[in-house]
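User: quick one - fold this with adenosine-5'-diphosphate bound?
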Amino acid sequence: MNYETVIGLEVHAQMLTESKLWCACSTAFGAPPNTHTCPVCQGMPGVLPVLNKKVVEFAIRLALATHCRIAPRSVFARKNYFYPDLPKGYQVSMFESPLAEGGWIDVETDGRTRRIGITRIHMEDDAGKLIHDELKPVSYVDYNRAGTPLLEIVSEPDIRGPEEAAIYLKNLRDILVYLEICDGNMEEGSFRCDANVSIRPRGQEAYGTRTELKNMNSFRNVARALEYEVRRQMAVLKDGEAVIQETRLWNDSRSATEAMRGKEESHDYRYFPDPDLIPVAVDPEWIERIESALPELPARKRGRFVDDYGLPPGDADVLTSKKALADYFEATVRDYGQPKAVGNWIMSELLRELNAEDRDVADCPVRPEQLAALLRMIDGGEISGKIAKTVFQDMYHSGRDPEEIVREKGLAVVSDTGRLAALIDEVMAENPGQVEDYRAGKEKLLGFFVGQIMKKTKGQADPKTVNALLKDKLGAR
Ligand code: ADP
Ligand code: MG
Ligand code: ZN
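Assistant: Sure. Structure tokens for the protein plus adenosine-5'-diphosphate:
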């Protein structure tokens, strides 16, 4: 039987606000347990939440960037369940009236663009964290994260494979990071994904029964979990059994998904509008102001890098993968020109160094104008391309200007004909046999002589000058 895979993703993105969603507590990560809490985020009786306006602004930014309709009026609702990390006994989310609906993100796989629908985007609060003691039968609870603002972004079941799911996620993450509303860190959990997946016979319109996968903390693991689950569901159907709607956990060390619990239905949560919070009514003028201040988004920047700079799409992908990297590229091109050459230097030399120490381009010790100066020195024939790479290493580790390094280390190209001629005389005197052979017609020996000169100049002789002088002197009897 030929099956089609159907995937829909629910993403939770932690907002980069300084304070929490309902109180003034700090959202800073890594503080000692329960130092960033107050009666509001501890869910004490009688407290009242006050909506953090910045979170609404961030949500509107994302809604605009993903082409959603923003509801003039949206409503916070209580999602009731008990868990020790949830002191209120309910999560505040949005249910019937979310902030934004009906958007999309374009995803490119194998050179083909597919449009993935965004069902909804809404705001909600995060829970605290349980810490389980490894030695004693005790669990601790840390409320520092309780009340941290999240956006939930729900996709339509439009995704047709694990690879497409990973690309959708990367695109969404890039948009969030470009908008400066989420740090997008999957390993640390500030960008989390639940993946819903089902299969159906190709050509059938009705969706199959889905399972929901949790606990994947990297793009790769999302793809691996989905691949595993598709294979598992196929085997279940092949055995004549039915897929059970349930939540399954990805077990990384076993590379398998495991049944966790039966899937809860939304009525299990007894949603109702939160009586402590009035509906959110957003002023259209505010939306316009936010829209006019939106940065250029990754997809548009990528397109512009291809159109305006003539870069291959692959290069444009890499160079726009981070806004700071794209800015670095553009600053260097403004100074030096030659986008393709600049791109090559950034993608090979610069990224190698940055990746080696996991350093952000924003903290790069080599400034764009210093890189431009180095490239100009190659063009001007002052240093060879090969020497330039060692100069670059020095620049990266010392932060010094290329001119200074070349001068101090004596790395400039030797094109002084007087000096080179003298060296050639020396080499010829040292190798009379080879001179004889060359003159007898073994012209391949020219390479040997060039090599000797390079040795004497530590690779800094100007090859053109050396070649011309050598031919001249070897040719003359
Ligand atoms: P819940 O919040 O209970 O998980 P939602 O209706 O919000 O339910 O849907 C969650 C996700 O599941 C959405 O991204 C949706 O696209 C996806 N989804 C729904 N039905 C299917 C299906 N049959 N196969 C795959 N994904 C599905
Ligand atoms: Mg779900
Ligand atoms: Zn608080």
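One thing worth noting: The mean pLDDT is 94.
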